[in-house]
Amino acid sequence: MTKYNLTHLEELEAESIFILREVAAQFENPAILFSGGKDSILVTYLAYKAFYPANIPFPLVHIDTGHNFQETLDYRDDLVKRLGAKLIVGSVEESIKQGKAVEEKGFNASRNALQTVTLLDTIEQHKFDAAIGGARRDEEKARAKERFFSHRDEFGQWDPKNQRPELWNLFNGRKNMGEHFRVFPISNWTEMDVWQYIKKENIPLPNLYFTHERMVIERDGGLLADSPHLNKRDTEVPFKQIVRFRTIGDMTCTGAVLSQANSLDEIIQEVASSRQTERGTRADDKRSETAMEDRKKLGYF
Amino acid sequence: MQDGYLNMELLRFTTAGSVDDGKSTLIGRLLYDSKSIFEDQMEAVQASSQKKGLAHVDLSLLTDGLKAEREQGITIDVAYRYFATPKRKFIIADTPGHIQYTRNMVTGASTANLALILVDARKGILEQTCRHSFIASLLKIPHLIVCVNKMDLVDYQEERYNEIVAAYKSFASKLEITDVHFVPISALNGDNVVDKSANMPWYQGSTLLYLLETIHIGSDHNHIDCRFPVQQVIRPHKTKFHDFRGYAGRISGGIFKKGDEVMVLPSGFTSKIKSIQVGEKLIEEAFAPMSVTMTLEDEIDISRGDMIVRSNNQPQNGQDIDVMLCWFNNKAYVPGAKFHLKHTSNDARAIIKEINYKVDINTLHRIEDDKTLNMNDICRVKIRATKPLLFDSYRKNRNTGSIILVDEATNETVAAGMIV
Lengths: 301, 420
Description:
The complex is a heterodimer.
Chain A: H1 8-26, E1 30-33, H2 38-51, E2 60-64, H3 70-83, E3 87-91, H4 92-97, H5 115-125, E4 130-132, E5 149-152, E6 180-183, H6 191-201, E7 212-219, E8 222-225, E9 239-245, E10 255-258, H7 264-273, H8 291-298
Parallel strand pairs in A: 1-2, 1-4, 2-3, 4-6
Antiparallel strand pairs in A: 5-6, 7-8, 7-9, 8-10, 9-10
Helix pairs in contact in A: 1-2, 6-7
Chain B: E1 9-17, H1 23-33, H2 39-51, H3 60-63, H4 67-72, E2 79-84, E3 88-96, H5 102-110, E4 114-120, H6 127-138, E5 143-149, H7 158-172, E6 179-184, H8 208-214, E7 227-229, E8 232-234, E9 246-250, E10 255-257, E11 261-265, E12 270-278, E13 281-283, E14 285-287, E15 291-296, E16 307-309, E17 316-327, E18 338-343, E19 346-359, E20 366-367, E21 378-391, E22 402-407, E23 413-419
Parallel strand pairs in B: 1-3, 1-4, 4-5, 5-6
Antiparallel strand pairs in B: 2-3, 7-16, 8-9, 9-15, 10-14, 11-12, 11-16, 12-13, 12-15, 17-21, 17-23, 18-19, 18-22, 19-20, 19-21, 22-23
């Protein structure tokens, strides 16, 4: 490699930082959607780099289903303190109490889809005109079609067949009143890129990503963390297992994987040899072939 | 070898082709052979193929993600795919090859280092081969690989391959393509895709993957003409950084070093680079396409849209630009319409003053008497902006030579242009 040549991680970093600065320049009131997962942690870290030594010019918005892992919440609070950032929590519990969202019933009940209601409400309430997310195109086939700057109409909906073309480094964030944008600075990163970068930059992560002992139940061939939020069948008896999480979301739909990986090197090796996509552990994507596209059209992340 | 990824490069390439020339099969094979397709993805594609009553596994279902695409069996939009080998990470912008999708091909081509063009060995050079090659040359994609596919269906004949290569070279002489490679392959059987083919001992060249891994991309960025469009001014308002005034942006060309004499445009003030940094890390020099923050020795009034350059190498500066424009919108251009123009980190309003000619993208003929701009048209036009732009020709610099036009009423991106 010659001297004036970037590595793939450096080039991805440069692209993401450019996008984040473009958001700050083109929008009046942007926010980072922070889930506590590695992708939104990465986006927040890149934003820190993009604006250093100034503070990140966006608040972190967390849509709290009320079913989060405690480790996620602790990590979030600590991060906000370290960055001097502002935290805004949108509560799904609150949306349910107000009757705007209705709790799902049955054994696979999850508040995952309800997040959309709270998310759109939070965006409206705070008048955010750009919501920055950590979605990646390699994650899921509907996300493969996403733009960096993704336009949402006044109902927060995505129209995948009528997207604005994106060329070169020119991003069009113009919109009418009431409309907003979703922005995905790490669109071009793969799961492997994210892990390699986290290792290279030594970014701290919640412990959930590393191997630990946990009470789990088995369902549809996968493992779910046992918690009071999970509706269990009589046959689903919790047992102890050595696991870690490949993605982190709501406790009721994030599957654990059997793993002894205790360090970033071990995780990178595990990801390299894995034969399942990371969202293969997500029950929310398995509801139908176009589950993600359907949710995204309505305004999901 | 554990940390080998710290030396990997990134190569972006675009593919174009129609349903039956084996493009999906080829992409599927690259993904499959590089172990980038996961079991659960494969299972989903197998299930969908069965549901559609297909005897084989339809690998195009991997790339066609939207419901409408899967239902109609067509690709509507640019799909991005990712794979990596120990040497490089690849981003594929897979664009539909059908005639009305020039817009998608242009979009995919705008950021590509390389274009992969597929030719069916039985059919030879077709109109669409010419179309793709023209767009690759118009968008100045630095490298081109022509894959002569389906060699198995012409008995792996060397003569047929040579015929197609000769025909392509004769056509390509009319285009500005500098670096072109040819590979005879069978995507279906894997000949010369990842492994050398035993069926074509007469072919002494590299396999497709080897080319993708080794083509020299280090010179794809302009490292000569220094261009730093300022995206944002960073003022921390913190006691520790009280006087910090950083200029954030992505380097569009050249190499900037600490201590360099620079000029700020349009004001024309000069100063020296005091520091360059990425995040907290101070660096000695920065080059395209890095995103950095610079500080200068002198306090100068600089804002978004300004450009930091070297005084002995300045971009052009003017309100009138000649552009090759590709019209994207299904609503045709209305003469006299005003647009919002985006160029580097700069914004202006603009009108199209004159349409000089339209290009027939199949024959490359100029059509002088058609003054309309319809979806997928490519025309040479004169544009006038409300304020001076700091630009280079697209040939010299893809970043400072490109523009988009935005409809002022709908806010849609209606056209993209390359400055002549």
